[in-house]
Predict the structure.
Amino acid sequence: MAKSATKPTASPTDRAAELRKELDHHNHLYYVEAAPVISDREFDKLLQELTDIEKAHPELATPDSPTQRVGGAPIPGFEKVTHKVPMLSIENSYDEADLRKFDSDLKKTLGATAKVEYVVELKIDGVSMSLTYEDGKLAYGVTRGSGGVGDNVTHNIKTIAAIPLKLAGDKPPKVFEARGEVYMTKTEFARVNKEEAKKRAEPHKNPRNLTAGTMKLLDPKETAKRKMTFFAYGTGAMEGIKIASQVELVEALKKFGFPVNPHSKVCKTIDEVIAYCAEWKDKRKTLDYETDGMVIKVNDFAQRERLGFTAKVPRWAKAYKYEPEQGTTKLGAVVFHIGKFGELTPVATFDPPVDLSGSTITHASMHNASWVAEKDVRIGDTVVIEKKGEIIPQVVDVIKADRTGKEIVIKWPDKCPKCGGAVEKEETGTSYNFICTNIGVCPGQAIKRLEGYARRTRMDIEGLGREVATQLVDSGLVKSVTDLYRLNKKQLLTLEKFGDLKAQNLLDGIANSKNRGLARLLPALTIYMVGEAMAEVLVEAFPTIDEIIAAKPTDLAKVKGFGPERAKFIREYFDSEAGKKIVAELKELGIKTTHDKKAAPAGGLPLAGKTLVVTGTLVNYDRVTIEQAIKDAGGKASGSVSKKTDFLLLGASPGSKYDKAKELGVKIINEDEFRKMIGAS
């Protein structure tokens, strides 16, 4: 009897390589081609087999293995990364006339006879992301951030199966930066809300906010539990590849293994653009992901280069935003939320809830007492609801023709609904509101102040948002911001949803905030009319908190941009018992209450008396940071070129300022020359 031939068993090395190739292929079919050929269960079996092999043979695990998507160990915090090419925003337009002007302005620059082709794409409502590949392998993923600097979120990016860990093809470019949008489908958003219903007091508001919050998680295993996805639509830094148009770019992205949105169109005229935008006004609601408009881009990259940029946006692109969707329902009741200054904000509860832009709206803000009086809003009224920016719901009008006579005038409380303190009417010019006078005691105010204190632009305490602030205040652990610095892990572990890791991360964030400095501390203290920008100006004049406390109102009023009114609020804060108590406790707890002024060079500031104009995009600076760098070096940053301009700082894709500078004979410098001038490394 002849023996049947048997296939030799593959070695672990060969089988692991085979499985990685097969899993990458199925991921591509699922996310890029939208044509899967195996079930989720079959895919999971293959993935588990590879996981088992890599566990048994750790030396076979590779950074680009599909097993890396389940998430590794938590990271301690976010590294800041400077974008090699800034991630600029796109200017919005809202009607047909805006789009026609956009087309007309382009042709003025390119020439009346120029043929301009547009690519029109859906504007995905997600989180902008930059993905850099070096020699074909994912090096890092970075959020848009300020446009110049973002957060390194590679640990979370690797959990998104739609994003390739290595570029497809045998000869990838040396450097390729793909840009696109991380988003969550409506189906996944509903699943997460249902799954977390027992853990959260309120459901997540919308897919975009949940996506943004998920991308900022420090534990990738938690990120992996929420299935996010990705569409690629742009590029930044590139080496070893040349692309001449948006159409070519989309083809390159697909070739490299990125999913791209299928609903884009090449339009040869602005009339075609307008028609395509109109076509998607209602059709977009049938999609399983949120969109908030369309993006119109010049197809030809050479034309883009000629068109250049303004100070903030590219001239070759425009975002077309649809009118906010509106709905009507009945105002069932009104509750009052307390703001950081004690202001009572009326919040409408709807009966029944209204479906709007893909979500069910149960309540929305009604601004303030003046607005309610002006609109004569009453309980029982039929009201018009819309989403501001398709995100924040608000009441915009009342349909008085629907009144039956049974509607009830809204009555403002004479006692704070959060603390029972006295409520007083406060008038400001022609408007007014009602205020809880229990300053420093009211827990409603404390929650808002705590949330504001922890903001990234202030004391930047990771993990301290609205929900945690509410827990800390309602539990009695925190009454004032200074109580944050007395918290310990044992206390935090008594709070719902606080495990050891979450508690330690919060404590680390609080400890790190001690050295932010006076410019960040002042706006964090919630002093009326003193925000981030004003605080930076104030600390240049008074670099210690003691100097501010000692300053007379007339001295404070002389600070640029302040004046008597702002000076009065500063004095009132530091003269109050609550203000004095907080300052004393901040010092006792070791929080930095001084501002480190940069020492002037021995020979004076390098740009003293010089006026600089910036055009184009820079590698190391966004618009805010370059203006600050010029100012720190003693110079003046101007927005227009004139005979008084000393230098034009030239970046990539410059605008008309470059031509004006050449015409006037203004000295033109590049970024490297600028950095040498100011002594930057």
Observations:
- Residues 1-7 have pLDDT under 50 and may be disordered.
